[in-house]
Amino acid sequence: MTPTRVLIVDDSATVRGLIRILLTRDPAIEIVGEAADPLEARAAIKATDPDVITLDVEMPKMNGLDFLDRLMRLRPTPVIMVSSLTAAGAETAIAALEMGAFDCVGKPGSGEQEQFGDVLLAKVKAAAGLRGRPRRESARQPAAERQPYRSDGRIVAIGASTGGVEALIAVLSQFPANGPPTVITQHMPATFTKSFAGRLDRLCRPAVCEAYDGAPLTPGAVYLAPGGAAHLRVEAGAPPRCRLVKSAPVNGHRPSVDVLFTSVTDAVGARAVGAILTGMGRDGAEGLLAMRSAGCQTFGQSESSCLIYGMPKIAFELGATQKQVSLATMASEILRATCAA
After folding, report:
1. Are 254 and 231 a contacting pair, CB within 8 Å?
2. What is the structure's pLDDT at 58?
3. What's the pTM?
4. Within 10 Å of residue 101's Cβ, how many Cβ atoms?
């Protein structure tokens, strides 16, 4: 089996060395080059033709986003952004994901190297499978004409992982300002979710923010689960409310899509709509099955429109998805299912 050929781009020799050591523990990975800045990276890409590139978010000599934009236009290659866990690093990483980067990981703190290595290795292997695939057309549509919409009170619960930045922007940008009460769990490093929620709020008509304990689920409100510290659950009430619960990871994730979906079923029964979008792994499949079994309408993103057909595939195989739809039509399906007659 041909090994996955990786180019490491980071201005820190220490970080480059750490990534090299962590990745080469797996014999299926070959490091074909290293570069300290985008100019060195450009030469290394021409010389080595890597399958996957790990790219530092903040580097000297050339803006990292400018480099990524040129790379995606001239020589599309799967890129995993490696970001410092700062507000500036998070903002840049979110922009990179919108531009076509495969995924992002946060640089490890003290004692986190092993976990960082496991996560990075899984993402590198998944990204390698995309080499040679045609670049997908953007699923983001111009904002739809304002049609009369009135929420019937149903809660919308959405789960996503790898590729979810682009997917969630595509879906939520089609929601009206008074759209359905929506809760989202997106797998993302802990410090990134606040920046992503802010980005969604600027791009979309509903009010989007990080979920907080006790947040009311009312029309026009969209809540994104904070990364890392707690699971996002929905609690019954008038209106239902968000709860942040500090408990162990589920399916290796905290927050977990399964936890969110299952809590929605417990809180409101059939008065909800579930959607599972692009992502690695199986988180959310069992929870979506619970939603469908309770009488909820459930949707899965179609394989052809997914960056990674992992989570939606498992959900489909379990019988959890009532209907598979393209990313371009996901928003209209959700709105149709939640619009008052």
Report:
1. yes
2. 78
3. 0.92
4. 26
The single residue of 83, 151, 161, 256 carrying the catalytic annotation is: 161
Q: How many helices (H) and strands (E) does the chain have?
A: 11, 14
- Structure-block tokens of residue 262: 């299952």
Tokens representing 252? 């290796």
Is 110 a known active-site residue? no
Which among 194, 129, 117, 201 is positioned nearest to 163, based on CA atoms?
A: 129
Q: Considering 51, 173, 187, 258, which one is annotated as catalytic? A: 187
Domains and CATH numbers, the chain: 4-128 (3.40.50.2300), 155-338 (3.40.50.180)
Name every residue whose Cβ is closer than 8 Å to that of residue 169 and which is 6 or more positions away in sequence: 98, 140, 199, 200, 203, 204
Chunk the chain into consecutive blocks of 10 residues (it has 341) and report each block's average pLDDT, rounded to whole numbers. 93 94 96 94 95 88 84 92 82 90 89 91 92 53 66 96 96 96 95 94 97 97 95 97 96 96 98 97 97 98 95 98 97 96 69
12 is catalytic: no
Determine whether 84 is an active site residue. Answer: no
Identified catalytic residue from 51, 56, 258, 283:
283
DSSP secondary structure string, 145-203?
A: P-----B-S-EEEEEE-TTHHHHHHHHHTTS-TT---EEEEE---TTHHHHHHHHHHHH
Q: At 221, is the secondary structure helix, strand, or coil?
A: strand
DSSP state of 304: G
| Cα 299 versus chain centre, distance | 17
Residue 111 is encoded by which pair of tokens? 């004692």
Cα-based angle 140, 142, 166 (whole degrees, multiple of 5): 15
Distances from the Cα of 5 to the Cα of 28, 128, 215, 307, angstroms:
9, 8, 46, 20
